[in-house]
Design a protein that fits this description.
two-stranded parallel ribbon; 4-stranded antiparallel sheet; 417 residues; 8 strands; single chain; alpha+beta
Length: 417
């Protein structure tokens, strides 16, 4: 009865699970991931700053009105010919190309925001694909435990009946139950790992946390076209140069610092202020019109401090960009080496070994129930079968994880570039 209820619960859980292929998961991730949506807004923010940098300075108007005419004894005598009004209009003119330099810096900041969004997309996509494959293989491993547990449960139930009749010794029954208990503990660890992977995917996909996810992955065989041994480090470095958004962000940041240095030097050049003045009565002639030009004299403040700070920031950014370039080369070398090792081990594994082992397990179980072999031989073979199945599943998982790490290091699929 307990075995029936367990199978029923598992079947019900599988039926209620959200089944996703990797393309479906990636599509939902791009549309619903909260971090991506928030970071994408940062690009719109920088575009708004870029639009703001295109605008000219607003003109300034100054109006002065005589509040009380003592001769006519009137308040706010707007219409009197002997009242006083002054109107001034000023317009700031930026010199030394400051507006274009500000616009260029704002455009580069938009590129940096785009780089950061694409880098977040790259890293979160890696987490998504890594968790997706790990969930798939953990579920495959769980199926091995389910198969073994079902077979062993049936064997224990039969031996319990035989023990109750006095036909088998207690030590054999105890050994079977001990192995079944150990199997249950290992199975529980797999369930915990599956829960972790499903929680990770739920956050990335923005789904309900109590919604079970079942990954549906295609059969990953040793495709000769996706062999890391065929990849060269130089070609991967060239691909990474074009596709790593984090590297582009460092370079765009260096460009922004250089543009800022140019802007700070331009800010040392004084700007012009054009002014037009109308004075009704206060001048030497009535209805005076005049034009003027104002400029700041750069005697004390020539923006020296900001220029020096911008120069230091440019040098610092250059050093950071060079250091990050070396870090990417080292990361790429490490990822390629690991991918080659995992793929080579996977390709040398004899897949017929597992299929032959799977056919043998039924015969061994039947022979044990007929008491043609003892409990030690049965459990030894049973454990060997479990170990070989789990090792092959882990081997596949390791290979896919190393290939995903290589994809992360390159910035795109290295086999399609």
């Amino acid at each position: 009865m307990l075995l029936f209820w367990t199978n029923f619960s598992q079947a019900q859980s599988t039926a209620d699970s959200l089944r996703l292929t990797l393309p479906q998961a990636e599509e939902q991730f791009r549309q619903h991931n909260v971090s991506l949506l928030a970071t994408r807004l940062g690009i719109d923010e920088q575009r708004a700053y870029q639009a703001q940098a295109k605008l000219f300075a607003n003109p300034t108007i100054y109006v002065e009105q005589m509040p009380y005419n003592r001769q006519t004894r009137e308040f706010m005598p707007l219409g009197q010919s002997n009242s006083e009004q002054v109107i001034q209009v000023q317009q700031l003119l930026l010199l030394a190309g400051k507006r274009n330099k500000q616009l260029a810096l704002a455009s580069t900041n938009t590129k940096i925001a785009t780089d950061r969004f694409e880098d977040l997309l790259r890293t979160l996509s890696f987490q998504l694909r890594s968790a997706f494959y790990d969930l798939y293989y953990q579920q495959q491993a769980l199926a091995v435990y389910e198969q073994e547990s079902n077979t062993l449960n049936q064997t224990v139930a039969l031996y319990q009946q035989q023990y109750d009749k006095g036909n088998v010794p207690l030590k054999d029954l105890a050994r079977l139950k001990a192995y079944l208990f150990s199997l249950s503990n290992e199975r529980q660890q797999r369930l915990s790992q599956i829960a972790d992977d499903q929680a990770t995917l739920a956050v990335l996909l923005n789904t309900a946390p109590d919604q079970p996810i079942r990954s549906v992955a295609p059969v990953m065989d040793a495709d000769p076209r996706r062999n890391p041994a065929t990849l060269s480090l130089d070609s991967l470095l060239s691909i990474a140069e074009r596709n790593r958004p984090d590297l582009r962000a460092y370079r765009d940041q260096l460009t922004a610092e250089r543009q800022n240095l140019t802007l700070q030097k331009a800010l040392a050049v004084p700007d012009l202020t054009l002014q037009g003045t109308y004075d009704r009565n206060a001048g030497y002639i009535p209805n005076y019109f005049g034009v003027g030009v104002g400029v700041t004299l750069p005697f004390f403040n020539r923006n020296q401090g900001n220029i020096q700070a911008a120069r230091v920031r440019t040098q610092s950014s250059q050093q950071f960009a060079s250091a990050y370039q070396l870090q990417i080369e080292s990361e790429l070398q490490r990822s390629l080496t690991k991918a080659r090792q995992a793929d080579q081990l996977y390709r040398t594994f004899d897949r017929k070994f597992n299929s032959d082992f799977s056919r043998l397990i039924d015969g061994v179980t039947l022979n044990y129930r007929k008491q043609n072999i003892d409990v030690v031989e049965f459990l030894d073979f049973f454990d060997s079968y479990k170990t070989s199945q789990l090792q092959f599943i882990q081997l596949q998982n390791d290979r896919m994880q190393r290939l995903e790490e290589l994809r992360l290091s390159v910035g795109t699929d290295p086999f399609s570039s």
